[in-house]
Queue: 2 jobs
Job 1
Amino acid sequence: MTEQYKKLEELANKYLDDLYKNKTVIKVQTGTSGQAVGADEIFSLLSSKKSDNINVIEVGSMGLMYLEPLVVVVLPTNDQIFYANVDEKLTEKIFEHYSTTNEILKENSFAYESSRNLDESIPKLNELPQFSKQLRIATRNFGEVTPGDILQYISTGGYSALNKALFEMTPEDVVEEVKNSGLRGRGGAAFPTGVKWSFLAPNKAPVKYVLCNCEEGDPGAYNDKGILETDPHTLVEGLILNGYATNSNKSYVFIRQGHDIPINAIERAISEAYDKGLLGENILGSNFSFDMEVSLTGDSYVAGEETALMEAIEGKRSPPRFKPPFPAASGLWKKPTNINNVKTISYVPQIIKNGSEWFKSTGTEKSSGTAIVCLSGHISRPGMYEIPMGMTIEEVLEEVGGGSNSNKPIKMLQTGGPLGGVLGKEAFATKIDFDEMAQSGAILGSGGIIVCNDSVSVVDLIRNLVAFNQFESCGKCFPCRLGNTHMYDVLQRLADSKSNSKDLELLDRIGKSMKIGSLCGHGQLGYNPISSSLKYFESEIIDSINNKVEPLEKMLTPTRTRPNSAE
Amino acid sequence: MSEKHNSEKLRNIIKDSISNQKRKTVTVLSSLLAVQDSLHYIPDEAIEEISKHCKVTINDVWSVASFYTNFRFTPPGDKTLDVCWGPSCHINGAQKLINQAHDELDIKGEGESEDKKVTLRYSTCLGACAQSPVFAIDHKMFGKLDETKVTKIINTLKN
């Protein structure tokens, strides 16, 4: 271990001692979803209070978003008590209570964590299936650390993988380790990450870039922004490792403007990493130098496509580029470039630390590791969960997600973003991994799973998805631009019960033209929501085409903002 | 104050936002974002200043500004209400709540209320799907909405 890293560890341990020793620490989970239900107000209220034995800190979400605002009390004994749906009144009570005693306050506590048995009436956290079914690798610090606080991250073993790589491994070793781990891209395409890195690594060009994609425009997915706003140092460490492995010295983290919580967290993380010598010249005293910067983009879904993203970083409009040349040969500013999704990069520190065999021991043969899924819609426990690859959809819905949130049964799912697919009940036995999901007609994609009960008509769902796709088409390829608009019109006809018998054939024809006539996935996959729905709900769609169903409620029509000069 | 004075003031704000960007890589897009951050819209003067600063044509700047849907070219209302119509919010009844917002603010589609206090904007996803349906006021989110909560939010906007 290097002297410099040892010093950082000592600093971190002292900092943690000051924070936790003989103190009760109240952690408020103030991520994006927490703030949407008032967690930031709970935090301000707690911070305004004074007590000698209590410290109050902000942490990111542990993923159990249905229980937010969520507060965790860490007692001086290290026992933790978890509180759900905390309102102002309960906040006052929690503070008053723990400033005088270490006895457990039971009100709204849904779990505890301790080496002992504390209370019969409250379960241990690990007894809850929504927690015990998870295997947290990339999200292991969720709910534990203050986002961007580097000393808290180091105290969990953070940056030890970087220290190991820089002084015990060659760049080739790092590429090999990632290759052997079987890690595949979590952004949608599922390409083997180590193989991708090996395209860039041998290139002798003096300037090379590694990019991290956090554009994540998929409705229903929030795990990329989730990692940024909860444990951004995991990403920073992974990205430095990516740079070291591929002999690159500059990186950009790409994210859409307006998502202030994740943007602030990653910028804090980057700036603290520079302060501690983990970014910049001669990292930890080694010969390796590396820079990192956040690059903001405007609102454009297509900007998340890998070559479009490079156009956006260069400050231009962001239609996708023609390939070849591929990014590894000519990417950002025509320099050799590697690009990965946030989730992909966030696995790397643990793979380097624990070895590829360890990582491979989780998951399925061709999809190693875990999947980070975001549940939303008509499900009892909406939230973000990291589950081993190979778990079935059924298990995720019932055991992790707690099943339907009403007495109406679950009818279908929408997975992998608006270009992904719609799955019916017959597909619920499918294992969650890249290949089985693709076979079922959907994609794992970004990991968003939107759950619909039987009150939702399949036409209503795909009308919404296609409306999104037509709104977000960048307009470069006309089959995508016109095709999506035309498909939306047809679906609108179906929804209004004004369809005609040729509409199904028409949709099929448009879908096929989009697939062969578009440059990027936005057009190529645009027919997916319809084709997958036809696989599971053909009779329902045919009923709509024959106008046998009641017209649906009107939906807004999104239109692109047009420049209107003030004159 | 004369109009000339105001326009000079506007130009200075624009120049400041373009030259004081905190991130190292300065591009047409980053400059547009910086101006929109301080003024909440892109006036014609900004297009000119960015073209000078980045040494590109006015058309080049327009081409970027007109591509990304977050840019607007007239001043917005004092507060911006984002309403999400993404699929998670949609199946949880967002459409009804958006109709309610339209009615209570007397805004049709996207745009400003008559007193210019509020801008209503459609959002494809605000990123808090677990708390759907979600609205946001100037990026501050409000989740698990129902009719009563929407009325409450809109009343705070009106006052």
Note: Chain B touches chain A through 55 residues (CB under 8 Å).
Job 2
Amino acid sequence: MTGDGVHVEVVLPGSLADLAGGTRHLQVDPEGATLAAVLDAVAAQHPVLGRRIRDEAGAVRRFVNVYVDGEDVRWQGGLATAVRDGAVVQVLPSVAGG
Amino acid sequence: MTDLLAIGTRKGLWLARSDDDRRTWTLDGPHLLAQEVAAVSVDTRRAVPRVLAGVQYGHWGPSVTWSDDLGGSWQETDHGAIRFPEDTGAALGRVWQLRPDTADRPDLVWAGCEPQSLWRSTDGGCSFTLVRGLWDHPHRPTWEPGAGGGAVHTVLPDPATDRVTVAMSTGGVYASDDGATGWAPRNKGISAVFLPEPPEYGQCVHKVAVDAGDPARMYAQNHFGVFRTDDGGGSWVSIADGLPADFGFPIAASPTAPGTAWVVPLVADVQRVPPDGRLRVHRTRDAGGSWTEVGAGLPDGAWTAVLRDAFCTDDHERTGLYLGTRDGCVYASADEGETFTLVAEHLPDVLVVRAARLP
């Protein structure tokens, strides 16, 4: 473990698994206890995956939903949402498109 | 010699090939299925041709990807080929145009993007640098997005000089004479029916094409109005007389026959369909002095449209013409638009077509 000693599981949709080396479950040790730090750690391991989730300005893409322990971060602290040790961060595509 | 036609759609890319001088075509695809391909180019300047695509991965954002084996495999740059610098606070919305420069400028590729921005690559499209002169232009905060979004959708590097011309909706035509450093609007004479006075800039230009005989002569299809300039955009005159409608999205010029260009008129503003549902091409051979309806083989009862990049030429001596519709049909002409044959049907909405000859 590094930083704040937080270990997090990131759960991905199947459509992103290829970009994570074929797995839907990533284990990350972020350099901080926030969602932003978790996503930074994901991007450091898998840069293309990181770009699918956030744009280059750092914002979570419009039609991407992120949940921390089951709570939509849009209604929490956004990228500043606190992430506890052992948290599960889930990335899901929203209902959109056609 | 194989003719290749790249067909970008709202849900993937198809590649059509012809080995009999464009008479019959074999369709290969989908590639990049479920991904919107709004920009594509086939860069034949390389040892092996590169298909370069601007894609939108559905929920997962835009990117540039390329294939050096004609769609067999695709690559993209880890951190994104087009990435706004941090100080801009901007993020890439969509890649609208990928334009390889001339053969004597190998590896130079231009990209036009949303938000309105121009990008330059010197490594064949693997990575691009923001053209700051246009991004920092004092007009930029007042460029409004058109219905499809605010984007640089046309990039026209002059083959003989350092001039680069771009077109954007809205914003109009801008040009640089010093290799894309300084930029100035070039819209004098172009009307904008949605603005009270003819403006210096802000026109909704849909597409610009360069004449075969003189790079300073260009043709523009606008959101109402078809225009020509003979002085690199210094002034424009209407050339819409003789057309059944002056609205449309694309315009194409022959790369070999001076004075020859084509438009696809649509009734507008609300309908945006071919007049009487007859999908036809109109051709001029005298730089817009007169127009002739052509396009035998194109359908009647076609209540569809051809978008700005879904129309292109090839570089045969007798120019071929390619056209894709919003209802997923693609047509090819080997005789300057006189006759068309069906290349594909029932594809998703066609956003872009680009033709190339492979060795």
Note: The mean pLDDT of chain B is 96.
